[in-house]
Specification:
Oligomer: single chain
CATH topology of the largest domain: UDP-n-acetylglucosamine1-carboxyvinyl-transferase, Chain
Shape: globular
Number of domains: 2
Strand content: 25-35%
Distance between the termini: 6 Å
Strand order of the largest sheet: 21-22-1-23
Number of helices: 14
Largest sheet: 4 strands, mixed
CATH architecture of the largest domain: Alpha-beta prism
């Protein structure tokens, strides 16, 4: 367990380079189970979630080696082995083992998949997709002598269920159509990786069509982490700093950037960089929804920003119980009111606090508040924040933040 010690209230200056996306890297790592061969992945973020995912593959017999920014994953000799519960329970992305193992080995163990604890996250949609393709679920295991193409319709958008459906359909016999699929950028980056391994995947109006076939090793460059970029943009604004945030995909963050501009901020773009400037000078309302709408992972990030300026309203339509972090933000002086799936954030004077990170993005929200509040704050369970932000302490120190990590 580790803690961050932050002396807040400092103006920051300099350039932040955005790392590869956690949410894009993890599906691709587990997809190497399906793409039987040697795959090359460039730009994997050096974070604990990625390290755990690679350890899971090693435990199943994969050979992994690094060469600079490239990681080579050889799954030719992979065998079906039930990964240790200790590894699986650490990351939510281990649920991708369901689709990947069922596709390659015809079986997958139902484990207690990990991840953030802000809301119960069922896998019923994942299982329904597997059953549609011919799997049976009994005695805590999914099994299938062979998967066959089928029509899958998701009545609710789910990135995880979409990823598993794509992995299963890519190795199934015949054609599969997936309706109601998630359109997040990391879903499309997974599809491009699978195509590189020989997958036949096409887009037809409101569905994805996949014709199953045997796949081989592929290559991928991990897309920029849009949640990390959004986090540093908020840090720049809340601290009144002058930061260049480099290596972004502007289109992926359009709904987030539009919200900041509606609130009064100025965003200057140059190439793949953004320079956030100004303040949020009016009450700002934000509603989360599946991509291309405002990302749910940036909802907690907005709360301290709204509190530091004119207040606002956060409405959550993806994870309705994702407001547990607010009680911890109140330790910094954030005033708020909960009303079902919405939270009203009131203008607040922020002061230092000692708190414990409740989950990845909620922990990042606490860190943002600590960087704003003048004086020394402490955030315990900081390893939770490290799950999703590569080298965050050194990146912040590099732009002038007074922060250190202790064990």
């Amino acid at each position: 367990m580790s803690s961050f010690i932050i002396n807040g209230g400092q103006r920051l200056h300099g350039k932040i380079e955005i790392s590869g996306s956690k949410n894009a890297a993890l599906p691709i790592i587990f997809a190497t189970i399906v793409t039987k061969g040697i795959s090359k992945i460039v730009g994997l973020p050096n974070i604990s979630d990625v390290r755990v995912a690679l350890d899971i593959l090693k435990s199943m017999g994969a050979t992994i080696h690094c060469d600079g920014e490239a990681v080579y994953i050889d799954t030719v000799m992979l065998e079906y082995r039930e990964p240790s519960a200790e590894l699986v329970c650490q990351i939510r992305a281990s649920s991708y083992l369901l689709g990947a193992c069922l596709s390659r080995f015809g079986r997958a163990h139902l484990s207690a998949f990990g991840g953030c604890n802000f809301e119960r996250r069922p896998i019923d949609m994942h299982l329904a997709a597997a059953v549609s393709l011919g799997a049976r679920c009994e005695n805590g295991e999914l099994t299938a002598k062979s998967l066959h193409g089928s029509d899958i319709t998701f009545k609710k958008t789910s990135v995880g269920a979409t990823v598993n459906a794509i992995l299963m359909a890519s190795g199934a016999q015949g054609k599969t159509k997936i309706y109601g699929y998630a359109r997040e950028p990391h879903v499309f980056s997974l599809i491009e990786f699978l195509r590189g391994g020989g997958a036949a995947i096409s887009f037809c109006n409101d569905y994805i069509e996949i014709e199953g076939r045997e796949l081989s090793g592929s290559c991928a460059t991990v897309i920029p982490d849009m949640i990390e970029a959004g986090t540093y943009a908020v840090i720049s604004l809340i601290t009144g700093s002058e930061l260049e945030i480099s290596g972004i995909n502007r289109q992926d963050l359009s709904s987030f950037f539009n919200a900041l501009v509606r609130g009064g901020a100025t965003l200057v773009f140059s190439g793949d960089s953004v320079f956030p400037q100004g303040i949020i000078d009016e009450f700002l309302s934000v509603t989360t929804a599946p991509h291309p709408s405002f990302p749910t992972d940036l909802q907690p990030i907005m709360a301290p920003l709204l509190a530091a300026f004119c207040g606002g309203r956060l409405t959550e339509s993806v994870w309705l119980s994702r407001f547990g972090y607010l009680s911890l933000l109140s330790g910094f002086g954030v005033k708020y009111e909960l009303n079902g799936s919405s939270a009203t954030i009131y203008p607040s004077d922020l002061h230092p606090a000692t708190v414990e990170a409740p989950d990845l993005r909620g922990g990042a929200a606490l860190l943002i508040a600590a960087l704003k509040a003048e004086g020394e704050s402490r955030i315990d369970s900081a390893q939770i924040i490290n799950r999703g932000y590569e080298n965050i302490v050194n990146k912040l120190r590099g732009i002038g933040a007074q922060i250190k990590e202790i064990q």
